[in-house]
Write a structure and sequence with these properties.
- The protein has a single domain (6-58), classed as Glucose Oxidase, domain 1, CATH 3.50.30.10.
- Helix content is 22%, strand content 25%.
- The chain has 2 helices and 4 strands; from the N terminus they run βαβαββ.
- A two-stranded parallel ribbon has the order 1-2. A two-stranded antiparallel ribbon has the order 3-4.
- The chain is globular, with a radius of gyration of 11 Å.
- The chain starts with 5 loop residues before the first strand and ends with a strand.
Amino acid sequence: MSQEGVVVNVGAIASHASIVSRELGIPCVASVADASLRIPDGSIITVDGSAGTVVIDQLP
């Protein structure tokens, strides 16, 4: 399994995570309140950086 998206609790379009993700072509959604608590480790998620959405597809 590979990591192909970034979800961060805090940040904005000019945050470090957003800039690096954009340069690497990796989808990123920032400012997802409590993302690290809401998304359990090992979950399979879909990250749509253009729409700013994160969907939990499968829990571990």
